[in-house]
Write a structure and sequence with these properties.
Elements (H helix, E strand, L loop, with lengths): L2 E10 L4 E3 H5 L6 H8 L3 E3 L8 H16 L8 E5 L11 H7 L7 E5 L5 H14 L5 E8 L12 H4 L5 E10 L5 E9 L7 E2 L19 H4 L2 E2 L1 H22 L9 E4 L4 H11 L10 H4 L6 H11 L8 E8 L3 E8 L1
Parallel strand pairs: 4-5, 4-6, 11-12
Antiparallel strand pairs: 1-7, 2-3, 6-7, 8-13, 9-10, 12-13
Helix pairs in contact: 3-4, 8-9
This protein binds acetyl coenzyme *A.
Amino acid sequence: MYNSKIVGAGHYVPEKIVTNKDLEKIMDTSDEWIRERSGIEERRFAEMGVDTTANMGTKSAKIALERAGLTADDVDFIVFATLSPDYYFPGPGVTVQHELGCKRTVGALDVRNQCSGFIYSLSVADQFIKTGMYKTILVIGSELQSSGLDLTTRGRGVSVLFGDGAGAVVLQRTEEENKGILSTHMHSEGQFAELLCVKSPGNHTKEKFYKDMHEDYKNTSPQMDGQAVFKNAVVRFSQVIMEALKANNCAPADLDMFVPHQANLRITQFVQRKLQLPDNKVYSNIQKFGNTTAATIPIILSELWEKKGIKENDLFVLAAFGSGFTWASALIRW
Ligand code: ACO
């Protein structure tokens, strides 16, 4: 069995910055409410017709490959996580295969696990590398969510939280022992699927698959029971982190960095207190990007890469919780 290691990370966010003050102009909300409840100060919104979920993924993948000293032709497989694909089908993985200009017809897999999507994707890629099937895999998380948000007072409970952006990592085979992805852990609890979901278009009722977007606004924009999500998130985050640490005979004090999915600064702070981690071992960027769902974790990895914030042998834990409910963690030795 081989191990897999992140050898490059990149990210891309749209240029347009939307501040809380900008949202105040289009809905009944306030900068104070948003900051206090979530920590968010601003987010990026894509320019429609310019940015797409796939092309933001491609842009971040190109940076990740460059930082890894590799080209598109080195890629053996693509795993793409998103809840906001460009088409209902096919998923965006195939578009990346095309946009990158891969000479080979490498496989592209789409993962639909929302906020946990990137860690699920990393886990899938890790298994392919461990078994020796592939050597180099692109793992991408990308979201263009702004186009599907209800940006009126009616949708304010959800829409102020989300932003657009993409991040990617290159995962590669290593023969070094105790290096790279040490373990991944994934869970789901489908009884809560409707507490955070977009229902339409879908086949969950007797009604026809497609309904007019305006007539059916309640189902075509995200619906969330925020408090239920919050209560479950703080429990599951801590559990899945401890699961990863225990599986590797480690303790919270051994961690050099906790990279949480950026759902809400208050969730992160709650988990930080529980694990008794100092501020310099917890990374947050929700203040400037909001919740970019599958993209939050690879964006952080790319930012750390840029800041040279990752040292050889550092122990990182990645953890996420979100719609499904699904939650997951990965323990990484750099
Ligand atoms: N601006 C102003 N007021 C608002 C807004 C807004 N944007 N949104 C809601 N309110 C009002 C509500 O109407 C309510 O008013 P009322 O008391 O008069 O009825 C009041 O603010 C409180 O609303 P709550 O929903 O109870 O606020 P809460 O303190 O729970 O915070 C929040 C809401 C931030 C959504 C929180 O519950 C949360 O962070 N939940 C978790 C989100 C999350 O982690 N999502 C998972 C990831 S997403 C994914 O997987 C796709």
